[in-house]
Structure formats: C-alpha cells, structure tokens
Fold this protein.
Amino acid sequence: AAVWGEAQVSGDALISGSAHIHGRARISGNARVLHHAEVSGSAHISGEASIEGDARVWGNASVTDKAAVFGKAAIFGEALVNGTASVKGNAAVYDSAHISGYAEAYGDACICGNARVYDTAKVMGNAVISGSAKIGGEAEVYGTARITGGTEIKGKTKVHGTAVLDGNPPVGKEEISKGVWLEPELPDDAVLRQNRRKGR
C-alpha cells in the first residue's frame, strides 16, 4: 500500500495490498481501501465504507456509511455513495449523482448528472441513469435502457431492453422494454388561445 502527496489516513482506517491513496484524498473512520484500489483527488472515504479490487474513487466524490465499491467500478466528480449501497463490475457513478440505501449498480451501468438511485433499486447491464432521474423502491433498470430528465421510477417497475424514458411512464406500467417515453408537453398560451377561438 502507498499513501503520498497531501493524502490523509486517520481513525481506524485500513489501507492494504497494492492500494494507492494520493492527492488530497482522506480516508477516515473504519474505512478500508484494499487490493489494487486507488483513491485520489479530494475524494473522501469514511464510516465503514470499503473500496476494493481495482476500483477507483477521485475528484470530490464521497463513499461513506457501509457502502462498498469494488471490481473496476469508478466513482468521481461530486458523486456520493452511502448507506449500504454497492457499486461493482465496471459501473460508474459521477457528476453529482447519488446512490444510497441498499441500491446496487453493476455491469457497465452509468449513474450521472443529478440522478438518484435508492431503496433496493438495481441498475445494471449497459443502463444509463442521468438528468434528475430518480430510481427507487424495488425498481430494476437494465439492458441498454436510458432514463433521464425528471423521470421517477419506483415500486417493482422494470425498465430494460432499448427503452428510453424522458418523463414518467403511465401509472401502473410495471414493465417497459422498448420505445421512447417522453413527458407530454403542455401547449403554450398562444396554442391554448388559438384552440379556444376554434372551439376546441
């Protein structure tokens, strides 16, 4: 293990194996950084969080509580991983995205923008969650599905295949595997006035 630069390790934190901690990274509490993992930039690993395998955490990202990041997963930007969430495989969480609760991201999944994944939701395969999308409950997103905008998926909903959502699906729709679902646009005032004149 190696710690250099302005990096700090405090509390009962454990750094072992070939792990590298550098830049201004902080490892504190009972956090563990193991194997070939790397933590750099101004990233902060705290609580009982675990960074293992070939995982990388950098930028201003934070991993805390009992969260686990392993495999070749990447956490960066202003991203936050907390609760008992796990990010593994080649999954990436970045920008200002947040994964929490018992949620999981794995495969080649990407969670970015201001997206939130929480509860026991799972994002896997090549799925991308972006914008201000929220995935919660027992929802599962996989395949090459894309969810963006202000879309909110919860309950036991499954979104997979080639589905693209930029807006909430119809209430009661529990499985979406294809198609493009857009938030219906409200007509502007001019259109409403014109339709009123025509008696519509």
